[in-house]
């Protein structure tokens, strides 16, 4: 059995792209998720090199060193938490990361800041703001519903954080995006 850690897997299409490359190699995948693949067998050096080249061409990267793996696992956990978990309960980021990665949060936080040059909290906020942007563009939810979905204490807090990160209010961002959208018959 072999476990591979892959950098830059951020969505279901990434999972499909990696799965496709492994299928081309004829490698049997036991389990695949964002940032991680478990194989039935150990890859040979030639297979690993071929896979590495194919993944690099797609914008991915095999991760070999322990610190890089942990960083990628932190990013994957944050992305999963913000973009893919549908439950609306309050999350304590430090507890979730410590439990999921089996490390003390202070170690994870220091390592992430050292390697990425930004705190885990700032990365988490950036991901949340990207999710807010996505939801605003879809236009199906009110700002209040978005704030509730992403566990903001209030719409005002979400708006302030959004403006701090993007330089725009959520309503101004939404207006700009709506102005750029074309009706389907004009596409």
Describe what this molecule looks like in 3D.
This protein is an alpha+beta fold. It has helices spanning 12-25, 45-57, 66-84, 93-101, 105-116, 120-138, 143-149, 155-166, 170-180, and strands at 2-7, 29-33, 36-39, 61-63. It folds into two domains: 2-64, Alpha-Beta Plaits (2-Layer Sandwich); 68-178, Arc Repressor Mutant, subunit A (Orthogonal Bundle), CATH 1.10.10. The chain has nine helices and four strands. Helix 1 (12-25) packs antiparallel against helix 2 (45-57). The longest helix has 19 residues, at 66-84. The mean pLDDT is 88.
Q: What is the tally of helical segments?
A: 9
Summarize model confidence as the mean pLDDT: 88
Written as H for each helix and E for each strand, in order along the chain, the element string is EHEEHEHHHHHHH
Give a count of the beta strands, DSSP E runs of length 2 or more: 4
Strand order of the largest sheet: 2-3-1-4
Query: Given this structure, which CATH class of the largest domain is correct?
Result: Mainly Alpha
Keywords summarizing the entry:
9 helices; alpha+beta; 4 strands; 2 domains; Arc Repressor Mutant, subunit A; Alpha-Beta Plaits; single chain; 62% helix; 187 residues; four-stranded antiparallel β-sheet
Task: Walk me through the topology.
Elements: E1 2-7, H1 12-25, E2 29-33, E3 36-39, H2 45-57, E4 61-63, H3 66-84, H4 93-101, H5 105-116, H6 120-138, H7 143-149, H8 155-166, H9 170-180
Antiparallel strand pairs: 1-3, 1-4, 2-3
Helix pairs in contact: 1-2, 3-4, 3-5, 3-6, 6-8, 6-9
């Amino acid at each position: 059995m072999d476990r591979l850690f892959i950098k830059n897997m951020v969505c279901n299409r990434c999972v499909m792209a990696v799965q496709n490359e492994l299928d081309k190699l004829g490698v049997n995948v036991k389990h695949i998720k964002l940032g991680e693949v478990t194989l039935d067998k150990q890859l040979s050096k030639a297979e690993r090199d071929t896979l590495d080249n194919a993944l690099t061409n797609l914008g991915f990267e095999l991760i070999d060193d322990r610190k890089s793996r942990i960083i990628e696992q932190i990013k994957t956990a944050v992305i999963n938490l913000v973009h893919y978990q549908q439950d609306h309960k309050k999350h304590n980021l430090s507890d979730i990361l410590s439990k999921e990665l089996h490390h003390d949060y202070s170690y994870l936080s220091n390592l992430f800041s050292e390697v990425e040059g930004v705190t885990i909290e700032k990365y988490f906020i950036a991901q949340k703001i990207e999710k807010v942007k996505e939801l605003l563009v879809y236009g199906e939810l009110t700002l209040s519903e978005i704030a509730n979905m992403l566990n903001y204490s209030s719409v005002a807090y979400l708006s302030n954080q959004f403006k701090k990160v993007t330089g725009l209010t959520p309503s101004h961002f939404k207006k700009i995006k709506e102005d750029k959208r074309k009706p389907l018959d004009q596409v």
